[in-house]
User: Which sequence fits this backbone?
């Protein structure tokens, strides 16, 4: 459930950024919407999503380029702190979207079953342990992502430039910008 909440929150961010078209809210049963909100609250609600953002941003901090100038690191930290605060401020809206989608996609029985599990001792234990599990997972994944990112971006850039017929100058400018922006693995 927590993973679904996080993915729903991140999907809401993607939609908010304009990457996807907004769709009108479908009418959902008030009973199902109330159950969906109870499921979200039982799984930690706003506090849980804010904790997950904390884990994500903590791991982003670790991906700052080694040897970067102190003023660049300070600026990156300020940007991350501000971004985190903005995102945490959006959590109530994200959870409302999540509740709408749960109520739209799940049956009343599925919502009741999910709520029962979330409120069970096992469900509560998983909820309490989820931030730590996510933290450990991201800490182990970060070096892999950092190492793979330049190759993945190059591959993506090549594909996009092939499709859009980038000029050599555009390709070079993009490559230079990416080289500056990408975290560099510590030696």
Assistant:
């Amino acid at each position: 459930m927590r993973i679904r909440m996080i993915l729903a929150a991140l999907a809401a961010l993607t939609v908010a950024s304009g990457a996807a078209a907004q769709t009108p809210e479908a009418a959902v049963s008030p009973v199902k919407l109330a159950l969906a909100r109870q499921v979200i609250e039982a799984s930690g609600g706003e506090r849980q999503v804010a904790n997950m953002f904390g884990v994500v941003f903590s791991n982003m901090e670790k991906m700052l380029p080694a040897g970067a100038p102190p003023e660049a690191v300070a600026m990156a930290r300020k940007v991350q702190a501000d971004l985190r605060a903005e995102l945490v401020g959006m959590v109530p809206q994200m959870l409302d979207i999540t509740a709408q989608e749960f109520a739209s996609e799940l049956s009343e029985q599925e919502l009741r079953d999910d709520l029962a599990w979330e409120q069970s001792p096992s469900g509560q234990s998983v909820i309490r342990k989820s931030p730590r599990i996510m933290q450990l997972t991201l800490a182990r994944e970060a070096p892999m992502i950092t190492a793979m990112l330049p190759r993945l971006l190059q591959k993506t850039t090549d594909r996009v430039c092939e499709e859009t017929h980038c000029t050599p100058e555009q390709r070079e400018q993009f490559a230079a910008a990416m080289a500056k922006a990408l975290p560099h693995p510590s030696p």
Notes: The chain has a mean pLDDT of 81. Residues 2-140 form one domain.
